[in-house]
Amino acid sequence: MQNMKSFSARRLAALEPTVRDRCSELVDRLLARIDAEGSADLVEELAFPLPAVVVFALIGFPDGDTERLKDWCTDRMSFSWGRPSTSAQARIAEQLAAYWLYCETFVHARLADLRDDFTSDLLRVHLHDHEAVSVDEIVNVTYGLSFAGHETTTGLIGNAVHRLLEVPDRWSQLRAEPSLLPTAVEEVLRYDTSVVAWRRITTRAVELGGARLPEGAKLLLMLAAANRDPERFPDPDIFDLQRHDARAHLSFGKGIHFCLGAALARLELLVVLEQLLERAPDLRLVEGQLLSFPPNVAFRGPQTLAVTR
Ligand code: HEM
Fold first, then answer.
1. Is residue 70 packed enough to be buried (19+ CB in 10 Å), middle (13-18) or exposed (0-12)?
2. How far apart are CA 243 and CA 306, in angstroms?
3. What spacing in Å lies between the alpha carbon of 250 and ligand 1's midpoint?
4. What is the rounded average pLDDT for all residues in the chain?
5. How far, in Å, are 126, 129, 162, 258, 267 from residue 156 at the CA level?
């Protein structure tokens, strides 16, 4: 797995031109739609498709499969973290089996025809040393990565644009001082992260915050609450574009399971904000809209975000 981490760091860095090109095409579409119809849904036009096409390109999934992969990922989010009805659970279970089979078929096809993508990188490691990583593990990585690298970033882009436009001064401040953008990315992650909770199992008995936890306890960590801990961040409920230690948030977790895609997620949000600020400095939220969020304990981002100019 160490191999996976180093390979992915190199691969993610190489993805930057793809992120910039895809983002630019999607911003073209978003602005054209606003011009034609007066407003557009930023989630549908940009926040949803961008992370999907980028992470699928990283893995090597064919472009033509994007739509069904996106549907499977949405199903998976609802199945693991949401509250689908009994009949929906049965339907989703069938879909998830198809999704797993798709990943298996894809990895075996790559094994016979290695290419320039992350899956092929891992398969090269496997061919060199079968003990280092098995084909089944690689199937699992494609299944995991295609989900982890997608809805999370969609939610983050939606939360970011919402928070930056809800107070127009924030948007103008960023336009005037683009050097604040990296801090803005961290402050959005701290103030309104898209992964509000995560799971852990204790490996030994431990006392935490005065509570005794036995070995094997299943915990739900409230990452979003930690990000607003007043002992860590002064005035935590204030969104501050100049917060010097915003990056100390826990939105990407901590320790050996620290998010593998943190750099990519940060890059995608930065590129989106750079391009929107430059090409749509007059962007604003459509007034009076009520935001809705998926009924989900871990993932949070607006389902639609109507914007205009
Ligand atoms: C806003 C975007 C994202 C957020 C908030 C986020 C958050 C997280 C969190 C909280 C964890 C668990 C960390 C822990 O257990 O300590 C995690 C793990 C992970 N993330 Fe992300 N993530 C994001 C984007 C991505 C992207 C873009 C990718 C891939 C391209 C990705 C891949 C992964 C993987 C593979 C893991 C599991 C790492 C392991 O178990 O060692 N994530 N992420």
1. buried
2. 28
3. 11
4. 94
5. 34, 38, 10, 17, 12
Which of 171, 162, 191 has the alpha carbon at shortest distance from 303?
162
Rounded to the nearest angstrom, the distance between the alpha carbon of 279 and the centre of ligand 1 is 30
- Which residue puts its alpha carbon closest to atom 27 of ligand 1? 149
User: How sure is the predictor about 7, in pLDDT bands with cuts at 50, 70 and 90?
Assistant: low
Ligand 1 centroid to Cα of residue 144, in Å, is 10
Between the CA of 259 and the centroid of ligand 1 the distance, in Å, is 3
Does ligand 1 come within 6 angstroms of the Cβ of 153?
yes
Residue 41: beta bridge partners?
Answer: 306
The secondary structure of 224-290, three-state, reads HHHCCCCCCCCCCCCCCCCCCCHHHCCCCCCHHHCCCCHHHHHHHHHHHHHHHHHHCCCCEECCCCC
Does 14 score more than 90 pLDDT?
Answer: no
- Is residue 242 within 8 Å of 189, Cβ to Cβ? no
The answer to whether the CB of 81 falls within 8 A of the CB of 299 is yes
**Whole-angstrom distance, CA of residue 159 vs CA of residue 239:** 12
**Ordered domains of the chain (ranges, CATH):** 2-192+260-308 (1.10.630.10)
Of ligand 1's listed atoms, the one at least distance from the Cα of 58 is 30
Neighbours of 38 (CB within 10 A): 11
Q: Which pair of tokens denotes residue 73?
A: 């990922």
Cα–Cα distance measured from residue 192 to residue 228, given in angstroms and rounded to the nearest whole number: 10
pLDDT of residue 183 exceeding 70: yes
**102 CB-near residues (< 8 Å, 6+ apart):** 65, 69, 72
**pLDDT for position 119:** 95
